[in-house]
């Protein structure tokens, strides 16, 4: 009986982890960046279900991996910053499995 209980617990844990992983991808994050004016980049972030991302980290990084700016989305899930010279990307980091890059070439 003890072996069955242990096996049942293992199955329950695996099932819970599977549900968590599925839930994490059910509402993928997004980050849309545009030029607000000639020198300012403005980004809006969120999740596909409409949830905002206030406080989520957004780093601006050069191709040589030097960090230009460490910032976070504001209460309205937006962030603005001066466009750096040269090539760079923005790293959106909402946690494990919820991070991705936005290349400067993708700024509209």
Quickly describe the structure.
The protein is of the alpha+beta class.
List the secondary-structure elements in sequence, H or E. Answer: HEEEEEEE
Global shape: globular
Indicate the radius of gyration in whole angstroms.
Answer: 19 Å
* Annotation, overall tally of beta strands: 7
Termini separation (Å)?
62 Å
CATH superfamily caption:
Macroglobulin (MG2) domain
Largest beta sheet: strand ordering: 4-3-6-7
Any descriptors?
single chain; 108 residues; alpha+beta; Immunoglobulin-like; four-stranded antiparallel beta sheet; 7 strands; 40% strand; disordered N terminus; Secreted protein
What is the element layout, followed by pairings?
Elements: H1 2-26, E1 29-35, E2 40-47, E3 57-62, E4 67-72, E5 78-82, E6 88-93, E7 99-103
Antiparallel strand pairs: 1-2, 2-5, 3-4, 3-6, 6-7
Protein name: Secreted protein
Model description:
It comes from Nitrobacter winogradskyi (strain ATCC 25391 / DSM 10237 / CIP 104748 / NCIMB 11846 / Nb-255). This is Secreted protein. The protein has one helix at 2-26, and strands at residues 29-35, 40-47, 57-62, 67-72, 78-82, 88-93, 99-103. The protein is an alpha+beta fold and 108 residues long. The protein has one domain: Macroglobulin (MG2) domain (Immunoglobulin-like), CATH 2.60.40.1930. A 4-stranded antiparallel β-sheet has the order 4-3-6-7, with no helix packed on it. The protein is globular. Mean pLDDT is 82; it is low at 1-25.
């Amino acid at each position: 009986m003890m072996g069955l209980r242990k096996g049942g617990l293992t199955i329950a844990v695996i099932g819970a982890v599977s549900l968590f992983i599925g839930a994490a991808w059910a509402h993928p994050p997004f980050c849309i960046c545009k030029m607000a004016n000639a020198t300012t980049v403005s980004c809006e972030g969120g999740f596909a279900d409409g949830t905002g991302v206030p406080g989520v980290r957004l780093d601006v990084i050069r191709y040589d991996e030097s960090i230009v700016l460490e910032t976070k989305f504001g209460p309205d899930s937006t962030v603005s910053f001066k466009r750096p010279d040269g090539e760079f990307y923005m790293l959106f980091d909402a946690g494990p499995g919820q991070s991705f890059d936005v290349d400067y070439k993708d700024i509209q």
